[in-house]
Each structure stands twice: as structure tokens, then as C-alpha cells.
Amino acid sequence: MDHVLYNGAKDGNFDILNNQKDQLHVQVTPNHNTVLHVAAQFRNDSSFVHDILGMQPSLLCRVNSRGETALHIAARQGHQKVVKALIEYADQAPVQDVERGDIEVNKHTLIRMTNEDGDMALHEAVRHNHHEVVEVLTMEDLHFTHSNNNAEETPLYLAAERNYCRVVEQILTCSSPGYTGPDGRTALHAAVIRRCQECSENLYDKKPAQIKEADINAWTPFHYAARFDLHSFVTYILEKDTHVAYLVADKDDKKTALHISTSFGSLNVMKKILEQCPDSWEMVDGRGQNILHTAVGSKEEEIIQFISEQPWFISLVNQKDADGNTPLHIYASSSDFKLPSCMKRHEVDINAFNKEKMTPLDVAIYNNISGTNESYPDEQLESVGATPGWRNIISRRKNEIMRITTASGEKSEVESDVRKTADTHLIVAALIATVTFAAGFTVPGGYDGNEGDKTLEGTPILLRKAAFKTFVISDNVAMICSTCAIFLHFIASAYANKVRVLNHIAYASFLILISMGATVIAFITGLYTVLIPSMGLAAISCIIGCLSFPLYFFLLRNLYVSYMRGRTHEKKVRVSFLFVAADHV
């Protein structure tokens, strides 16, 4: 496009355009934007738009390289006056769309035109939250069912997904807006997932049937409300329709909203569902598991405690799933999870057999032998009187041998790393303990040998100096922490449980880090104490010594980041010895 013409369109200079009005239909930018596109993008001037269309009406429906009309661009920019002017012109003087085969373009045709992404002007206005433009576009075409774009999004779905409540409310004034979105979801799915109470209620009130429509995962909006603990919305829905609480997700093990709220620890939602649907606790999922199976499998202790307080607890705790497992069997195959106190009650069948002829204790022992369980539920089960089943000793032993053989390579590698790490820790701790022990009796400045004052004889000369006191305290800290680390390694060698061993090593690592820092402080303060007469040298020595702390922090930070990212299995194994305590608290 000629630069003078382009600037004239951008700046709203009618005279420049009028001088080249014969060229308006052929002058385009690299993206095939006409002067009308340019004016719609940069100016919110309705009279200027009318002037351009007065000179060249065919520009109304001309599209650029992305299939966009000037209305698309004006809607995206939020230029309400331009949007109104374009629609009014199309309504008053319909034009022929030569590019589409001489089709007559009126205001409805213009509003419904789509670009190469399948977006109408309304999609663009919604996407950029231009409520005033949305109001104009919807009021001019109230009875049109809005279409999905190429991403399967309707304007209403876009607004709900972005929590644009005013826009949602405006689109709902249309007689039949499109509710659908990608992955089989509706606008109500989107509003619930975005946890917007206002949008969710408005959408439900307009079309209640949405609450029962399932997406490709077979989850309804009510399932998502249970997932995200939307207590207020769940209450709002159940007051109108309790049937939704019994809907199952066919493609997700036939879970109900109660199972989902249990799995994700949504206690308030769970209570509300049980209040409105008191018999819903009886429902099981596709694997035959009740809500207590789910709670134990998800390690939701608060949920387990709540269930244990209900009169139907005993009916659930001894109920078997499709594999014959009770909730106690599920617990036995878990890790890092203490036996809930409610499962120690005498009504609980602690020696129930599943379809593999295994009791909960059998499962716990088997998993522990196989290396899949890093906790010790077997010990906790034994403490409440659980016993092995002994029903399939031979076949079970064969399976154990096969699984142990498969996992032996990886286990031996990990155990070797543990031993190497422990040896390194012991050497470091022993060196620090030796050095700090010696420093405690060879204090800087020496001892007072003055025989005149018996109270001071044999005491450190620099006893009253603040730096010396800091030296003594830090030396003590380093000595005690290093010896405690050595003791922890000694205790760890008595355990057979891997988690306990790793925990002791982790705590020892933490103590060694403290002792290393305290040793550096002791060195700095001790050196400063004897160099006080030369203050410059003493200051330089302190500064050099203190520089080690930022270095330690930087190295530890990189180590921690490497562990969290889990770049390789080897890094995870080695770094976990230092940080595993945090994972087992």
C-alpha cells in the first residue's frame, strides 16, 4: 500500500483517501489489509468509516490474508463505534461480496462471517473482553446460534473459560447461544473448572441440562465441582437436582462426584452430597471400590476420620472390591502412611482374604519384600494383631523370587550409593570433630600464665573479647553437630528398613552442614581475635572467610534445584540422601 494512503487511513485523513478513491479497492498491505481494515485497527471513528464505504462499498466484506473483515479487526480492538458503523452500513445498503460469488451481504451475513480460524467478530470481542462490542454484536443478531471456531470454541465458552462474567451474562440474552467447547465440554464445564460461582449459576439457570452433559473423560460439570471443592455451587445444584450426585463417569472407573470429592480431599463437598443424598455412600466405582477404599488409596486422613465417625463406617471398612480387597488391603500396599486409628477397632476384619488369597499383612509383607513399599505397614498391622494367611505359600514365593530378581539390579545400585554416601559423611564428620576438638584446647592467644592472680591462671588470655566468645560457641556447635552426625550413622547401621536408614543419613547430612558452617565461623573469629592489632589484615581475613557462605548457598541451591527437576535417575538417588528428610516429614 502507498505509504501516504496508509498514513491517511491510519490518521483519519479523508482528503488523502478521497484523492486516491479510485485506488482504494486495489491498494492493500502485505497482509492484504485494505484502507478500511487499517482505519478499523487504529481509529474508533464511525464517520470516517462511513466516508470510506461511501467511496468504495465493496470494502465492507473484503478480507485480508487471514480471512478477516474490518469488523473482525474493529471487534478485536474494542472499537465500538466502528463496529456499529459497519453493521449499520450493511443493514442500510447491502453490498455484493464478489469474492464469495456475488452474495448479498447484510448485517447478519457480516456478523456471522468467519476468518481462517473459524472466528466470528464476536469471538474476537469476547477473547479480548470488550463487553461493549459484545453487547452491540449480540443485540444485532439475537436469534443466531453461535458457531464453534476451528478450536471448537463458541463465544460463550470462551467467555466462561476466561471468567468474563459480564460477557457471559450478555451472551446469555441471546435466544440460543452455543454452549459447546473443546473435548466435549460445555460452557458450564469451563466456568466450574475456572471456579467462577457467578458464571456457573448463570449458565445453569439458562440451561440446566448442561449439568448432566459429560466431556470426553465422562466428567460432568458436577464432577468438576466436586474435584475443585466448589461447596457453594454444589449446594446450589443439589437444592435443585439431587440426581446429579448419582451420575457416574463411565470412562473413569464409573466414579461418582462423591468418589471424586473423596479422592481429592474435598471434605465440604463430600459432607453436602451426603447431607442431600444420604444413601450415596453405598455406591461403588467401576473397580467395586467404595469411598473408604478411595480415601485410603488417596491417603486422605481427614476424609478417613470423617467416614469413621459415620454409622455406616463398618459396612465400608469390611467391604471388598472387585479384586476382593478391603480398604485395609489398600492400606497395606501403600507407603508413607500410618495405619488410621479407626482401622484398629475390633469390628474391622484385619485378616480378610482377597481373591489372591492374601490378607492385608500378606500384602504388606509381599510389597515390602518386592521393594515396592518404602514404608512399614507390616509392622503396624502386626501391632493390631494381623496375621499372615498362609493359603498360597508356594505360588506366592515363586512370584516373590521373580520380582526380587527383576528389581535386584536397581536395588543393589541404590544400596551401593547409600553406602558410599554414608562413608563420605562419616569421613567428613570425623575430620570436623577432630579439628574442632583440638581447637577447643589450643585456643587462639594461648592461656594466662600469671601466677599473681590465681583466679585467672590457666584461663584463655582473650576470654573477655567478643570475637573469642563467638569462636568458642561456634567451635562447640561444630563439635557437637559432627559427633551427633557420627552417632546417627552408627544408629542407622542397626536398621534394616531403607526409609529409616535414609532418614538418619539425611538428618546426619543436615548436622554436617551446620558443623561445616560453624567451623568456618570459628576459624574466622579465631583468626580475627589474634589479628586485632592489625585491623586491616583482620578485616581482610574476615571478608575472605565470609565469601564462602554465598558460595555454599549457591552450590546447595543448585543441588536442590537439580533434585527437584529430577534430571536423571542418578542425580535423584544421590541428592535424595540430602533432602529425603523433607519428603518423609
UniProtKB/TrEMBL annotation:
Which Gene3D superfamilies does the record associate with it? Ankyrin repeat-containing domain
| InterPro entries per the UniProt record, alphabetical | Ankyrin_rpt, Ankyrin_rpt-contain_sf, PGG_dom
Family annotation (PANTHER family): ANKYRIN REPEAT-CONTAINING PROTEIN ITN1-LIKE ISOFORM X1 (PTHR24186:SF50), PROTEIN PHOSPHATASE 1 REGULATORY SUBUNIT (PTHR24186)
Main localization, broad class: membrane
Locate the PGG domain: which residues? 417-530
State the membrane topology. Answer: Multi-pass membrane protein
Q: What is this protein called?
A: PGG domain-containing protein
Q: Name one Pfam family in it.
A: PGG
What superkingdom heads the lineage?
Answer: Eukaryota
Any one cellular-component term (Gene Ontology): plasma membrane
As for subcellular location, the record says:
Membrane
Q: Which SMART domains match?
A: ANK (SM00248)
Keywords attached to this entry: ANK repeat, Membrane, Repeat, Transmembrane, Transmembrane helix
ANK repeats span 66-98
Mind telling me which residue stretches traverse the membrane in this protein? Answer: 426-447, 467-492, 504-524, 530-555
